[in-house]
Amino acid sequence: MATGAASSRNRKPARIAADWRGVLARWLRRIGGVLLLLILAAGLAIWWAARWTPPREQYPIQGVTIDAANGAVHWGSIKAAGADFAYVMATDGTAGLDPMFARNMTAAREAGIQTGAIHRYSLCQLATDQAANFIRHVPRRADALPAVVWLDYDDRCPDRPTRALLLSELATFLAQIEAHMGKRSLIAPGPAFEADYKVTQGIARTTWLRRDFFEPDYGAHPWAMWQANNYVRLSGADGTVGWNVLRGGGEAP
User: Fold this and answer.
1) What is the mean pLDDT of the chain?
2) Residue 252 lies in a domain
3) Which residue segment(s) compose the domain that 215 sits in?
């Protein structure tokens, strides 16, 4: 009897251990299944984001934002993908120049795509010096789309001028590049920049706002152009491009 009782006691811990191993195995299988579903969902979201553009019936005129990170762009493929126009990164601050700017502008026009230049505005540099950089590198053309002033914070620039100073400097910059280009420019403030400086309230220009997948509503008045997806992948460009639409019923800026 003593031997049988001891054997029974020895079997109980073994059964408990086996039960715990079974429970653990079932939980691991469930966790693995959940992780697999999450990975599949993330992959599907990335695939969808790389291809989504707003509906053509609502926004018939659409185009791309391109810079040097997109490599040697095949503009025929960009046009075939549905781009009616292209805004190309041109200058940055007082000395920056996108190394692919001239090539992109020429090749895009040859492919039958309307083009415009973007200047990335710096809070750390004088407006007149930035305008000189833009004027030096962006030629005046009657068929060019209006220039765009990209307004965003930059980790390279810690300066945060007062709103009054920013608006004054920005007005100077716009007056100089517009005299050169012969047409009014667009302003493109990012959400954080606009929240702090309320540029669209202080500068009377057509606005280009940015928000992925959902219409932006952070400007003082309705947007004329919307960068709707900054994650689009096209066969004619490396990496991702920005995809933009004009407000329904509009014409190229």
Assistant:
1) 88
2) no
3) 56-246
